[in-house]
Design brief:
Number of domains: 1
Mean pLDDT: 96
Shape: globular
Order of helices and strands: HHHHHHH
Helix content: over 70%
Low-confidence stretches: none
Largest sheet: none
Strand content: under 5%
Number of strands: 0
Radius of gyration: 16 Å
Number of helices: 7
Structural class: mainly alpha
Distance between the termini: 51 Å
Length: 152
């Protein structure tokens, strides 16, 4: 691998992991979220940071691999779109307190993740595979978001 390739990976790790941690730290669930009626399958709050950190590393690596195919190609464009949607969800839900808008965002995110997997699979199965746990987690989070909308 070239030096510029390692640099690109480093930049993506900083943007994705750093950006995700920053957004998580500046858009905390707080008392509002604690007061919501939650479904029985709600995970404990301590689980979210480690899961998202691992997922953000996988997302960055998948983005790096997709970027190597070309920044204007469909996989990288879908990768960039999912990152925008991912980063938008926490401020909308935890800061604006809009579970309904959050549900729309997370469903669009899930669709984008699944489309990324489908489009990437023929070209880079590793990048596509890195998104499978992400799709599962966001699918679960989508069900949680939908339940929060229904209960509140």
């Amino acid at each position: 691998m070239s030096r510029s390739s390692f640099l690109a990976l480093g930049v993506l790790l900083v943007v994705v992991v750093g950006g995700g941690l920053f957004i998580g730290a500046t858009n905390l669930p707080g008392d509002w979220y604690a007061s919501l009626q939650k479904p029985g399958f709600t995970p404990p709050n301590w689980l979210f940071p480690p899961v998202w950190t691992v997922l953000y590393v996988a997302i960055a690596v998948a983005g790096w691999r997709s970027l190597a195919l070309g920044a204007t190609r469909a996989p990288f464009r879908l990768w960039a779109l999912q990152l925008v949607l991912n980063f938008a969800w926490s401020p909308v839900v935890f800061t604006l307190h809009r579970l309904d808008f959050g549900l729309g965002i997370i469903l669009a995110l899930l669709a984008t993740i699944l489309l990324f997997i489908w489009v990437s699979w023929p070209q880079d199965r590793v990048a596509a595979g890195l998104f499978v746990p992400y799709a599962l987690w966001v699918g679960y989070a989508s069900a949680l978001n939908a339940s929060l909308v229904a209960l509140n």
